[in-house]
Structures are given as structure tokens and as C-alpha cells.
Amino acid sequence: MEKTSTFHLQWSHPFPESVVPHLTLHTFRSHEFVITEGDAPQYLYYIVEGKAKVYFTQQNGKVALLHFVTEGAFIGDMEMLDERYESKGVQAATTLKMLALPIHMARQTLLTDALFLRQLCTYMSRKIMHNSAKMSQSLAYPLENRLAEFLLMSQENRVYNEKHTEVAAFLGVSYRHLLYVFAQFVDRGLIEKDGKQYVLKDVKALTRMATSIFKTPIHDID
Fold first, then answer.
1. 198 — alpha (psi -120 to 50), left (phi > 0) or beta?
2. End-to-end alpha-carbon separation of the chain, Å?
3. Global pTM value
4. What is the C-alpha separation between 80 and 54, in angstroms, rounded?
5. CB 6 within 8 Å of CB 38
6. CA triplet 78, 12, 93: central angle to 5 degrees?
7. What is the chain's pLDDT, residue by residue, as a tens digit (222 residues)?
8. SS3 210
9. DSSP one-letter code for 216
10. In sequence order, what are the residues at sequence separation of 6 or more whose Cβ sits closer than 8 angstroms to the Cβ of residue 119?
11. 3-state secondary structure of 146
12. Which of 41, 55, 57, 153 is the most buried (most CB within 10 A)?
């Protein structure tokens, strides 16, 4: 993880001016952990570039992928509000750039800032509604549509290398069914297997399949 002063940067953010001098830019490499599950975060983060994965260990010991977070999302907001909140694991899915404010300073300053709290409440309510709607809507569509969306969401530079076991659990399908659809995608020229990873070959076709679920644009892939 790399830390950089943000005074010369022009990142858009929701923080009040009073804390801007205390912000730093933290950069995490892909697969680097931001927060280890169960550990209290040292910072309140705000993502300005990249994607991260959020994990949770189930009672049976299996690690489950909960969701992805991207630009405009907070990490550590629940821990800032409630020190007893048990942190989920957060790992960079791509190169991840985040504005960071020490969590003790966030509690001292932001929890008494009415404007910031209003923005945070709006953000958290939208996040809950989005996750609920996404879960209910996506389960009504075939696996190929949901997998296309997942491939676009989790790729970095057209390369996909997530664990099949985690993805099968995330999408709510069997491991065998997931492999079957992957093989179909390869046969149709949508993706290409390259060792232990896959390369996205027909992004336009995958985007059409993904946006049939959500009528919102997928982030462009160069």
C-alpha cells in the first residue's frame, strides 16, 4: 500500500473542507487486502478509482464473496458509526485509489457534521436499495446474463481470474453449472481461457447480455 499527500489532487469527494488537510491518498495493488476480516479499520476510506471485493466468513468456515464496491463508495463507514461492528474483509479487485481519513478523526469531526451525515445517510440508503434490487432482479435471469455482468464487473484490463468456487456461491449456482456456462462462453468466442484466467474477447456481446438485466450502462472497457 502506498500513501500520498492529496493537497495537489483534485479528486471529487464528499468530505467537509475542515478535514481535507488530513486526507491522504492510499493506493492498493490488485489482490492486496485493505481490511482483514474482523480487524478494526484505521481509516475511513472513499474510493476515487478502482474496485474492491467485500468478503465474509460463514459459520461453516467458507469464505463468501458479498459484493463489489467501486468509485463513490465508502469503506469503514459502518465501523465509524459503530465501533462494535465486526468488519468484513475488503480486498482490492483492481488497482485501488482511495482518499483516507484516520478513523478516530472521522468520529471526532464527521459525526457532528450535519451536512456530511445527511450525505452519508443518503449513500447508505441507496446502497441498501441497490443491493436488494440487484439480488431480487438478477435471480430472475438465466445464469449466462448474470455471469456476463459478473465478468464485466470483476475484470481488470479484460482479464478475469476469480475463483470458481466463490463465484458459484455468489451467483447462487452449482460449481458444475458455472463451469458449463463458462465452456459455452468459450465456444461462442465471448471469452478465451489463458492458463488459470480468462480473457474477455467480445465485450460488446457480454455488455448486451449484462444490460438486459439492468438498464444502466456498464463502465466502458478500453
1. beta
2. 26
3. 0.82
4. 17
5. no
6. 60
7. 777 765 556 678 999 999 999 999 999 998 899 998 888 899 999 999 999 999 888 777 777 888 889 999 999 999 999 888 888 999 999 899 999 999 999 999 999 999 999 999 999 998 888 777 767 766 678 899 999 989 998 888 899 988 898 899 888 889 999 999 999 999 999 999 998 899 999 999 999 998 765 544 444 444
8. helix
9. S
10. 14
11. helix
12. 41
State the Cα–Cα distance between residues 80 and 58, nearest whole angstrom. Answer: 23
Alpha helices in the chain (DSSP H): 77-81, 103-109, 114-138, 143-154, 164-171, 175-187, 203-210
C-alpha cell at 165: 468456487
Q: Residue 119 is placed in which grid cell?
A: 450525505
Cell of 88: 468484513
Question: Which residue is associated with the grid cell 461462442?
Answer: 188
d(CA 218, CA 37): 29
Look at phi and psi of residue 50 and say left if phi exceeds 0, alpha if psi is from -120 to 50, else beta: left
Instruction: Return the biggest CA–CA distance within the chain.
Output: 57
